[in-house]
Specification:
Elements lengths: L2 H4 L16 E2 L5 E2 L31 E6 L3 E3 L2 E8 L10 E7 L5 E8 L10 E9 L3 E9 L6 E8 L10 E2 L18 E2 L5 E2 L5 E9 L2 E9 L5 E3 L5 E3 L5 E9 L15 E8 L5 E9 L4 E4 L18 E8 L4 E8 L6 H7 L1 E2 L1 E2 L3 E5 L6 E5 L7 E12 L3 E4 L7 E9 L7 E2 L9 H7 L11 E7 L7 E9 L4 E8 L15 E6 L7 E9 L2 E6 L4 E6 L11 E6 L5 E11 L4 E2 L1
Parallel strand pairs: 3-24, 7-41, 31-33
Antiparallel strand pairs: 1-2, 3-5, 4-5, 5-6, 6-7, 8-9, 9-10, 10-11, 12-14, 13-14, 14-15, 15-16, 15-17, 18-19, 19-20, 20-21, 22-23, 23-25, 23-26, 26-27, 28-40, 29-39, 30-36, 30-40, 32-33, 32-39, 33-34, 34-35, 36-37, 37-38
């Protein structure tokens, strides 16, 4: 991953290293260059502030992190490699940090696996992936920066000692780089190699993200021996008007059940995910893989543009998936940046960025989208369970969830309603808007018919500060539209003109025949990860309350619609801290 185009999201830090024009396009998509704070890159943390630090999300002891590069499972151990600045709390001095775990939740930090140190990566060691080769031999592919012009090449590294259960030391052989961009490739937009897969012809394949004019590309290379790579005549896939593709991910999903796959046959469905450099969001399509032509073809109806499906409709980027053979599942992992403050404040607090909770991912029975759910190992941190059931909420009512630690909690709730008759009419003019634009118009305090109802997280007692996560049901011409919002506009009383407090939102494709909607929210001091309708729509918000912190935080269930809502079941737990051995 390249920091200058993704270390801050499209809303953050408008002051540039040099003066670049920011162009505002339709639908609130912003093209922007991002500032690199060279003078701050090696300013080490003096103190690490604990306010807003997470309790059970992964983050190092201090300083800046970004992409989860190459998660993998090897010989009973989960490995997380990630981009890290060992010297400061802004992007720079990036190394491949390395941590290991037995359960994806509690971690041991090791020495970094890869440092920029040789001609093929002396100007940077950026994102990549891990592959397990025949003979049970792991190998890392990563993007190296070879000059001040940001020319990008693809390198590899291998463990120094396969008998070491933690694979602490990695070697970068001198026959690097393996892949150098030819004249047809934009050499400064050619990065983030995927996990390799083997075709039926016995040849390996990988994909890199790139750009030609405004067309995003997934450039494919093939190899017989993993050392000599040849570019395919055509990309695996490309889409016009989407800009540069980063952190591509391409993997099979089963058409039945929730188990993951690691075999690339034509009988499966496929997912192509890309992180979009221009919008700061991730998009994916579901489709078919023609193994003879090495072409990916999105299904009819799988929107192949910025209007398409997202893994997460909030602060979630540079995700990477891996197959976990120990539990026959595919796990995906994303990164959330800070969105609150100026870099000087990041330095003052001594850290920036978190890795989100790893999620199991599978194909919805409809075949139209993915479903995501926090890995089951997270449940081991639950404690102090409280429950509500059959609690009716009339219009304007709320109920506090007591007996847990609201600033660090896990909540699962199912809402029901007796009728859809009061659902508001969906304005046809909204069809051209993104879901978050509709949420901004129809916030949690705007009374509706069926909704808004949901959870007010990280809240003060009188809701001066709160981050509501809520549903609102609309009646469209031929069906109902369910909107899930995670609204940070009132998340903090702190005024900061650079703070981004969006109304993130996504539509939920759900059958309302049983007149029920479910929600799970993981609340962790400065992050709220929410999973609507069993994980069909996911939204992550980063928020920074000033009053609703630690034991001053509250949690409410509320209904601001005219239709009464019933909390059928609500289960909430305090969450213990994850153990991270620094």
């Amino acid at each position: 991953m390249k920091y200058s185009s993704k270390s801050t999201f499209r809303w953050a830090l408008p002051i540039m290293l040099a003066c670049f024009l920011v162009v505002l396009l339709s639908n609130n998509v912003v093209f922007a260059s991002h500032k690199i704070f060279i003078h701050l890159q090696s300013e080490s943390a003096v103190n690490v502030q604990t306010v807003h630090r997470t309790g059970y999300h992964f983050q190092p002891e201090k300083h800046w992190i970004n992409d989860p590069n190459a998660p993998m499972y090897f010989n009973g151990v989960y490995h997380l490699f990630y981009q890290y600045n060992p010297n400061g709390s802004v992007w720079g001095n990036i190394v491949w940090a390395h941590s290991v775990s037995k359960d994806l939740i509690n971690w041991i930090n090791l020495e970094p696996a890869i440092y920029p140190s040789k001609p093929f990566d002396q100007f940077g060691a950026w994102s990549g992936s891990a592959t397990i080769l025949p003979g049970n031999k792991p190998i890392i592919l990563y993007t190296g920066i070879i000059d001040a012009n940001k020319t990008q090449v693809q390198n590899y590294a291998v463990p120094a000692n396969l008998s070491d259960p933690y694979l602490r030391e990695w070697i970068k052989p001198d026959n690097n780089p393996l892949i150098v961009p030819d004249i047809s490739i934009n050499k400064t937009q050619f990065r983030d190699p995927t996990t390799a897969w083997m075709g039926r012809d016995g040849h390996w394949r990988i994909v890199m993200g790139s750009l030609r004019k405004r067309r995003g590309l997934a450039i494919m290379y093939r190899s017989k021996d993993f050392m000599k790579w040849v570019k395919a005549k055509h990309p695996l896939h490309s889409t016009s008007g989407t800009g540069n593709w980063e952190c591509p991910d391409f993997f099979p999903v089963s058409v039945q059940g929730t188990n993951g796959l690691d075999q690339y046959g034509e009988e499966h469905k496929y997912v192509l995910k890309n992180s979009m450099d221009l919008t700061r969001f991730e998009y994916y399509t579901i489709g078919k893989y023609d193994t003879k032509k090495d072409r990916y073809i999105p299904d009819t109806g799988s929107v192949d543009s910025w209007k398409g499906l997202r893994l997460d409709y909030g602060n979630f980027y540079a995700s990477k998936s891996f197959y976990d053979p120990s539990k026959k599942r595919r796990v995906i992992w994303g990164w959330a940046n800070e969105s609150d403050i100026q870099p000087d404040d990041d330095i003052a607090k001594g850290w920036a960025g978190i890795q989100l909770i790893p999620r199991k991912v599978w194909l919805d029975p409809s075949g139209k989208q993915l479903v995501q759910w926090p890995v089951e190992e997270l449940d081991a941190l639950r404690t102090q369970k409280v429950q509500l059931s059959n609690k009716k909420l009339n219009s304007g009512e709320k109920v506090e969830v007591k007996g847990i630690t609201p600033a660090q909690a896990d909540v699962e709730v199912t809402f029901s309603f007796s009728s859809l008759d009061k659902a508001e009419t969906f304005d046809p003019s909204w069809a051209d808007l993104y879901a978050q634009d509709v949420c901004a118009l129809k916030g949690s305090n705007v009374q509706g018919g069926l909704g808004p109802f949901g959870l007010a997280t990280l809240a003060t007692e009188n809701l001066e500060e709160n981050t509501p996560v809520f549903f609102r049901v609309f009646k469209a011409q031929q069906n109902y539209k369910v909107l899930l919002c995670s609204d940070a506009t009132r998340s903090t009383l702190k005024y900061n003109e650079t703070m981004y407090k969006p109304s993130f939102a996504g539509y939920v494709d759900v059958d309302l025949t049983d007149k029920k909607l479910s929600l799970r929210s993981l609340i962790d001091n400065s992050v709220v990860e929410s999973f609507g309708a069993g994980g069909k729509t996911c939204i992550t918000s980063r928020v920074y309350p000033t009053l609703a912190i630690n034991d001053k935080a509250h949690l409410f269930a509320f209904n601001n619609g005219t239709e009464p809502i019933t909390i059928e079941t609500l289960d909430a737990w305090s969450m213990e801290k994850a153990k991270i051995d620094y």
